[in-house]
Amino acid sequence: MQKKTITLKPTPLYAILKPSGLLLGLAIIGVAAYYLVDYLQRTDLIWATLDETKTYPYVAGIFLIALCIYLYKVAYILSHKYKITDEQIEHVRGVFSINSDFIELYRVKDLMVRKPFLIRLLTAMHVSLITSDKSHPLFHMIAIPSTNIHEVLRELVEINRTRKGVYEID
Predict the structure, then answer these.
(1) Strands 99-104 and 6-8
(2) What is the DSSP string of 4-38?
């Protein structure tokens, strides 16, 4: 029997938008701090004047660190890869160190498809699997392209359960 593999990755736009709150928050804090110090100096609540040329390297350093963290988070989300074969799901992720997790399909008990509004705008969906696996009782596939993958998974789970003779007892 030939194994077919379905490979899914998160939508790139999701990877760009998800961690953008970090940059936006730092930009708002930076602008607010600038105007607060300017206001305090004009109202003579701060007696010493601040030299802007001495503070620019610190501000630039903070934004450079924030940009590096943002780029790492984007790369980490883009590194997620879900490989679905006839017998298992492999989840590969990592930027510097690569981690792989495997879930046997006969262990899947239930699956849920979630399509929040912003994810739907990106033509994507979240798929969550409830499994009997000890290390991954709840497994999430985030921002994968909207397809009929949930139907394919359900069929593969049923085929694997009958092949292995696995039945759920409540």
Answers:
(1) unpaired
(2) --EEE---HHHHHHTTHHHHHHHHHHHHHHHHHHH
